[in-house]
Amino acid sequence: MATCKYFGLSTDELLSSGRSARIAWPRQVAMYLSRELTDESLPSIGRHFGGRDHTTVLHACRRASTRISDDEASREAVEKLCKELGCKHP
Known about the structure:
The chain is mainly α. Helices cover about 75% and strands about 0% of the residues. The chain contains six helices and no strands. The mean pLDDT is about 95.
């Protein structure tokens, strides 16, 4: 996963139940990009992220969107990930 590589996490860490900022922010970004760049439903994305509920995915997308619009460093991180994935920032 590009998000794991970018943030220096393993896939197991990203999919874990950990809530530390070191893990939660990258997970939120990955869920946000999954929602923005695919046609997958919230429940489907949640299943891919360790069986999370669709409301968890919705919360992650909202948090990421807010952080991206409010924080330049976060916006740049998402833009770099999008560039690596070969897409434009959503």
